[in-house]
Amino acid sequence: MNNLRQFYRKKTLPLILALIFADLFGLMLEVRSQTVPKYNNTFATKKTNQSKRANRFQAPPPPSGRDERPVKRKDAGSSGSCEGLKSQQTEFLTALVPKQNYQALTVASHPTFWFYIPFPAQNFHSLKFRLETADGYQVTVKPKNEKPGIVSFTLPATQKPLEVGKEYKWALFLYCQDSEQKSSRPVTFFVSSSIKRITPSNQLENELKAATTEAAKSAVYARNGIWHEALTLIGNRRRADSTNPELARDWANLLSSVQLEDIATKPFIDL
């Protein structure tokens, strides 16, 4: 009898231990299955919040029943190169606008326009900005920039405000020689596009009220397809705080959304 008991004890003990280990392993899997989704949900929420903050421009739909002229946002030179420039010059005068005219919207009465000038001031004579208004507004600037960079120009408050719902054509000319000298044929570069002022929607106004920083407001404008305010808000902040990595990321995101990522790392300069 004792031998029989010992025999069954030897056979059942390993089985009991195996069952115990199996239960422990199953418990570990259950705990892990409950904790992993929680981590993933947190990560997903974090990614969602980042994506909401990301300054990505959402282009408005094209107007129906209308042929839209393409934007000329880059120019390598209309009739040659400015004197003093290297022959291997590959950068272009660039307007910081989307590719289609109908996407360049603003809610401002006196909006800001942005450009990349690839030359230092010593290599060209002047810049002329022209806006097709009833009064034919234009202004000529003698730049003093010592190096290439991004510049901005705001329509002066002394000018009439843009009318809501009206589309305006504009152009920026870069003259290599004095354009007023009749005896010379000034070499020019130029870029052009259009701008349209719209009335902000109730949704846009509510989102702007909820935004606590200018960077956040820029993201709101970008998500609502308002190009000029999205660019100007983040551009002004980027110019004032050029070492901020978050502003640099938002600026790069916005420009890359309209295929201008090659401009994102260019410095800011004053005219």
Outline the secondary-structure elements.
Elements: H1 2-53, E1 74-75, E2 93-95, E3 105-106, E4 112-117, E5 126-131, E6 137-141, E7 149-154, E8 167-175, E9 188-197, H2 202-210, H3 214-223, H4 227-240, H5 245-256
Parallel strand pairs: 3-9
Antiparallel strand pairs: 1-2, 2-4, 4-7, 5-6, 5-8, 8-9
Helix pairs in contact: 3-4, 4-5
Note the overall shape.
globular
Neighbour order of strands in the largest sheet: 3-9-8-5-6
State mean pLDDT (0 to 100 scale): 79
Q: Can you count the beta strands?
A: 9
The number of helical elements comes to 5
Which ranges are low-confidence, i.e. pLDDT below 50, for 5 or more consecutive residues? 27-52
By secondary-structure content and strand pairing, the structural class works out as alpha+beta
Strand content: 15-25%
Cα-atom radius of gyration: 30 Å
- List SSEs in N-to-C order: HEEEEEEEEEHHHH
Largest sheet: 5 strands, mixed
Spatial separation of the terminal alpha carbons: 107 Å
State the share of residues found in helices, binned by percent.
25-40%
